[in-house]
Structures are given as structure tokens and as C-alpha cells.
Automatic annotation (TrEMBL):
Pfam name, any one: Usp
Family of this protein: Belongs to the universal stress protein A family.
PANTHER family membership: STRESS RESPONSE PROTEIN NHAX (PTHR46268), UNIVERSAL STRESS PROTEIN UP12 (PTHR46268:SF6)
Stated name of the protein: Universal stress protein
Amino acid sequence: MKHILLPTDFSENSWNAISYAINLFKDETCTFHLLNNYMPMVYNVEYVLGYPAQFGLVDAMRNSSQVNLESLIKRIDKQFKNNPKHSFDTSLSLDNLVSGIQEFILKRPVNLIIMGTKGATGAKEVLFGTNTVDVFQKVKCPTLAIPSGFQFEPLKDLLFPTDLEVPFKNTELEIVADLVKKHKSKIHALHILTGTNVTLTQARNKLELESLFEELPFVYHEINNDSVTDGINSFQKDNKINVLIMCNNKHSFFENILFKSKVKQIGFHIQIPFLVIHSKN
């Protein structure tokens, strides 16, 4: 059984991600964990203790979240007709999004987080808001971000750009292999040459990557481009890609630069689900 964590703020954006998740795993036995993190905009434990009346505000928010979670379960039941393979539970957390998720996955097994995301207001070049990027960086669990308004489509082609600088044996590629198997997908590994030749380390890591996917539909691409970002965007324009996959590894120059830049470099052209995986150590 898979355990899928679905953070929700009860927006249509998060509903869209929930719908995507249910469709993605429609043929698999899953427990979906609906998690709402609620916290007053101004919340200080010492302040609340000094002014007990403030407990009323927290209680009211908790009660409201509980009612919304119950309504969400009813909406899921109505739209998806009680898939016998799926079960749902609900959780509330008086915490911010990242800390609430971190606490949850410490207590329960979670295979994948699926969450909605939308660009920061007034910044068209940024697909991912601060909350999403914070989850990518700080939560060590595979996370699939679904762009606002994106409707589920079959996972025929998955794109995995890599600089081949980090060995893959300690990377959480199982989730990728599982998606490829279950959805009969093809994985496209993309290495972008920016004017330098492939090193011995990169060649060795390429062989390791090919070995990991040797029993699955796997294609390795190597293209020349002075810009990694332009290379990724160009490949997506020329090929119909359903999910973009990247590895967040602090030892990899390529991925480290991407995430330090808050994903702004690639966000402008990405309008497809984005899966972020991590190293195991």
C-alpha cells in the first residue's frame, strides 16, 4: 500500500492537486492523508498564555479546519465514487506548512507528497511560490508539485535532466521507476553540454544511471547548449513531456544552483507537474 500526503489549504489549487493524485493512483491501493496546517497570522505561545482569551481564536480556526476537511472528504466521495482501492484520513496541525509536513512524515510512512502550486503574485517568471520551494528544499521526501489548473494526463514521457556529477545509487529513484512501470512510461535522461567534455566521473555515473533503468523504457539524450535552463526548455518544446523530474542534492552543482535560485531559472517555461527527489543520506 502506498501512502500519499496531500497538504491542503482548501483552495481550488489544492483541490486540483488532490484530483491529480487520485487519478494518478486510481488503479493502486493507497491511503491518502489530507493534512491542513492552520496557524493564526500572529501567533506567539507566550502571548496566548498571557491572554487566555486568545485560545478562542485558535479553537475557532481548528474547528473551521475540521469542518473543511469533512467537506473535502464528501467532495472526494461525490466526484470519485468511492474507489475501493483508496482510503482517506485527515489531520490537523497548528503549524506552518513545512514544519507541519516534517512532523507528519516523522510519525507516519509517506511515499510521496503531492501538492498544488502557483506562481507568486505579480511575478510571471516564477511558477513556484515560496511555500512550494521551501518544501522542495527542506522536506526530505519525494514531492510532486501540480501547477494551478493542470489537468491529469497519462504519464507517457518523463524528463530527468541531470549533470551526471552525483552517483545515483543513493538517490530516491525508486519512485521514478515505479511511475514508469505502473504507467508504462518512458524516461528521458537529459545531459546538457555547456562547452566542456564529459568527465570520467560523469561517464561512470551515466553507466550507473543506465544500469538502474536497464529493464525499463529509457532514452539518454545529450545536447549542446550554453544554458542549462534553455536546454531544458528547448527539449520540452520539441517533445511532449508529462512530468519533469529533478534531484535536489546539495553536492550537485547543477541542482544546487537551481534551488538556490528558487527555481526562477526554469519556472518561466514549466507548466507541467514537477517531481523533486532527494538523496537518501
